[in-house]
Write a structure and sequence with these properties.
Elements: H1 4-18, H2 21-34, H3 38-60, H4 75-92, H5 94-111, H6 117-136, H7 142-166, H8 182-189, H9 195-212, H10 218-248, H11 260-270, H12 274-304, H13 309-324, H14 328-354, H15 360-381, H16 386-394, H17 405-427
Helix pairs in contact: 1-7, 1-9, 1-10, 1-12, 2-3, 2-10, 2-11, 3-8, 3-9, 3-10, 3-14, 4-12, 4-14, 5-6, 5-12, 5-13, 6-12, 6-13, 7-10, 7-11, 7-12, 9-12, 11-12, 12-13, 14-15, 15-16, 15-17
């Protein structure tokens, strides 16, 4: 039987897993950079940050497990793709960023930036990832801890920022240098939340939790997943919208570092206690995401290798603690080419799965075409190779940040022709 209170807890848990470092720092930063033109950029960001994660979780309801997510392309591709995805949202980028964001927004404003900053950063990272490990090894209580205890902390503090921000004169949005391609700019900036990448994987954690609670019927699990994903998506969209809007009010001020907009917003809306209160919010939000992702990484690699769940968790936490000391700016910079490559592929796979496409030819043509275009964009934008930049500019929507869209659609047309031709030959 479907229990609404259980679904609500799962929805809060899923929301909290999504809502971490990137969800706090990138929306207000987008508002600062777009100013008076925040709305079209915000819509693009909402689609990537809230809409795609919803579709990602829903696409998981069509499948039994991760082993089948991209196996229609090929079994080896599915394994390589999922591993790359988990590494990106795991120890390479997303998990370390939760620790460094907690330090920069929650700890550094309290201790100041003197010569001991590196030492404090190391200590902060060790404590943060020590807690991550402790919560992660409590496998059967992960979603309960996140949904029942930490999520309310996030919601209450963010609500305070909203209420105070809407009732205060924080400034007036102004014209910025960004006046064209705003939707695409917001859409691509939403990549940094990494939520769509995580969405098709968080279903694993939720389903495991449901099984431990005795909910083993597939249809019932799917109903819980749908309900939880809708709750999480609505929560994310609401928070993104207001953070972007409030951030736009600071567009007349120097933007500074990536984390500066979020920190300024908290200080202006919450007064002298802003840094301390926002630090609690950051710590809670980032810890929930870190726990969820570490559990996911540990689950995947314990199956892929001979290492135990706890061993993988230790390795992940130690590696992430080291990377986190490098700071948010470093991690974000390193993540850009990986996200430009992985996101188009992920979007394509989400769409093909959610629409229930069954034939391998569509997956193969669509995915490999998207891989080629994503690689071209990365080589052009990251390594500034003129030949690849020219290709991106020559493709419709290329300069808007979507050079892969038209080639992907054309590949489906080709796949359709091949599919029909093959079917006729088989029936002849």
């Amino acid at each position: 039987m479907l229990k609404k209170n259980e679904m609500l807890v799962l929805g809060f848990a899923l929301f909290a897993m999504f809502f971490g470092a990137g969800n706090l720092i990138f929306p207000p930063s987008l508002g600062v950079s777009t100013g008076i033109n925040w709305l079209p950029a915000g819509i693009g960001f909402l689609i990537t940050g809230a809409g795609l994660p919803l579709l990602g979780v829903l696409s998981f309801t069509k499948l039994a497990n991760l082993d089948h997510y991209a196996d229609k392309v090929s079994p080896w591709f599915n394994k390589v793709y999922c591993t790359a995805l988990i590494l990106a949202i795991g120890p390479l980028f997303a998990i370390p960023r939760t620790g460094s964001t907690t330090f920069e927004l929650g700890v550094l404003p309290l201790v100041g930036g003197d010569g001991s900053t590196l030492v404090v950063s190391i200590v902060s990272s060790l404590i943060f990832f020590g807690l991550t490990y402790i919560l992660t090894i409590k496998e059967n209580s992960i979603t309960d801890v996140i949904g029942k205890f930490l999520t309310p902390v996030i919601l209450v503090i963010v609500a305070l920022i909203f209420i105070r921000g809407m009732g205060m004169d924080l400034g007036t949005p102004v014209e910025t240098n960004l006046t064209e391609g705003l939707f695409g700019y917001g859409f691509v900036n939403g990549y940094q939340t990494m939520d769509a990448l995580a969405s098709i994987l968080f279903g694993v954690v939720i389903v495991k939790s449901l099984r431990l609670k005795g909910i083993t019927e597939v249809k019932l699990q799917q109903q819980y997943l749908v309900g939880a994903s809708v709750i999480a998506s609505i929560g994310l969209g609401f928070i993104y919208f207001f953070l972007i809007f409030l951030g736009s009010k600071f567009s007349g001020s120097p933007s500074g570092s990536i984390t500066n907009a979020a920190l300024t917003l908290s200080q202006q809306t919450l007064g002298t206690l802003g840094s301390a209160i926002f630090g609690i919010c950051v710590g809670a939000a980032c810890l929930t995401t870190s726990v969820g992702l570490t559990a996911l990484v540990s689950e995947w690699f314990s199956k892929l290798t001979s290492l135990s769940y706890r061993t993988v968790a230790v390795i992940t936490c130690v590696f992430s603690a080291v990377i986190a000391v490098g700071g948010v700016n470093m991690i974000v910079t390193l993540a850009v080419p990986a996200l430009l490559f992985l996101y188009p592929i992920t979007i394509v796979l989400i769409l093909l799965n959610i629409f229930g496409v069954q034939k391998a030819v569509y997956f193969q043509f669509g995915t490999y075409t998207t891989i080629a275009m994503a690689a071209i964009e990365v080589f052009g934008s990251t390594f500034n190779i003129a030949y690849f930049q020219l290709i991106v500019k020559s493709v419709p929507l290329g300069t808007a940040g979507f050079p892969w869209v038209l080639p992907f659609l054309l590949s489906l047309v080709i796949a359709f022709i091949i599919d029909k031709t093959t079917s006729k030959k088989e029936t002849a």
